[in-house]
Amino acid sequence: MIATFVPKLVAFVVILIIGWIVAKLLAKLLGKVLNRVGFDRAVARSGAAGRWQERSRYGASGLLSKLLYYALLLITLQIAFSVFGPNPISTLLTGVVAWLPLAVVAIVIIVVTGAIAKAVRDIISSALGELSYGRWLATAAAVFIWALGIIAALNQIGVATAVTIPVLITVLATIGAIAAIGVGGGLVRPMQQRWERWLGRIEQEAPQARAHAEAYQRGRGDAQQMTEETPRTQTGGATRSDYREP
Fold first, then answer.
1. Nearest alpha-carbon partner for 64 in 80, 86, 42
2. DSSP H stretches of helix in the chain
3. What string of DSSP letters covers 32-82?
4. 3-class DSSP assignment, residue 154
5. Which CATH architecture fits 101-221?
């Protein structure tokens, strides 16, 4: 038994050392690549990090590097324990390692969702910010996009069936009950008056919204034109500094 166990133990230790070295190198390489492509700035603009990034020791790229490091260590442990044959530890590590890619995809979904939600909110706020319902509409659109992204991320890691579907059924059932009992019952007249006020306000502010949207489009066109003309201005002809007096 000792003669068969000692080679397995040596192979176990060698696999751990090689895996640890590879994990350190790949984590450092990932951190450099993410810093080079500006991943931290993209996460900060998306708003997905929140205040935790300010209080944390690691930025978004550092956190992903650490996640990669520990994921590779788990894979190393899985390979190392498989040297001893089938065992409960190896089975547990196999399940955890199989779940890791799903978690990475879920993180990417959250980051992309945050960037899209922030961009949509900024666009709607810029186009309809002066209207009374502009900020509310921008916030509603961002929340809707965030909800879709969170549901997709939960579905990716395998908890959508247990969490999101009951929540969605409860929300839809609540909305349906309110609509059936309230609107179909005693709230018909108040709801009708509110809808008339809302529709009247929207109709009154429609020309202002159209003019604001046209001004926003003209501003974007002027900014794009200035961006295109700037290189020609810098490269064509002499600059003011060329005509300095002696």
1. 42
2. 2-37, 39-46, 52-55, 60-81, 88-128, 134-156, 165-178, 188-235
3. HHHHHHTHHHHHHHHT-STTHHHHSSS-HHHHHHHHHHHHHHHHHHHHHHG
4. helix
5. Orthogonal Bundle (1.10)
Tens-level pLDDT at each residue, the chain (246 residues): 888 888 888 988 999 999 999 999 998 898 888 888 777 776 666 555 555 555 556 677 777 788 888 888 988 888 888 888 887 887 888 888 888 888 888 888 887 888 888 888 888 887 776 666 677 878 888 888 888 788 788 887 777 666 677 776 777 787 777 777 666 666 666 667 777 777 777 777 777 777 777 777 777 777 777 777 665 555 554 444 444 444
pTM assigned to the model: 0.55
The residues spanned by each domain of the chain are 1-85, 101-221
Alpha-carbon span 183 to 36, nearest angstrom: 56
> Token pair for residue 164?
């999101």
Q: Which residue shows structure tokens 């994990």? A: 23
Q: Is the Cβ–Cβ distance between 110 and 149 less than 8 Å?
A: yes
